[in-house]
Specification:
Keywords: Membrane, Transmembrane, Transmembrane helix. This protein has 77 residues and is mainly α. It has one domain. It is built from three helices and no strands. The two termini are 23 Å apart.
């Protein structure tokens, strides 16, 4: 925990943006898994209320954009 706090204290803005991008991509993968789980359900009457496809697209686009924006800063150091 202390090492992570020290890393975040001295991390550049590009590294923090890259971490947010990775977090968004992890959320997108989670939404993709949940959508596949919902589509393979046995009882068709149990529909669900979470728009997993929309969440997947939102998080995937946002995470990809954040990673693309942060790449030059991370490479420069």
């Amino acid at each position: 925990m202390r090492a992570m706090k020290a890393f975040l204290t001295f991390a550049s803005e590009a590294e923090i943006v890259a971490l947010w991008g990775l977090a968004c991509l992890c959320a997108a993968i989670f939404a993709l898994v949940m959508e596949r789980r919902r589509s393979k359900r046995t009882s068709i009457d149990n529909v669900g209320w979470v728009p997993w496809t929309g969440l997947f697209l939102t998080f995937a686009v946002l995470g990809g954009a954040l990673l693309v924006v942060s790449i030059p800063g991370v490479i420069r150091g």
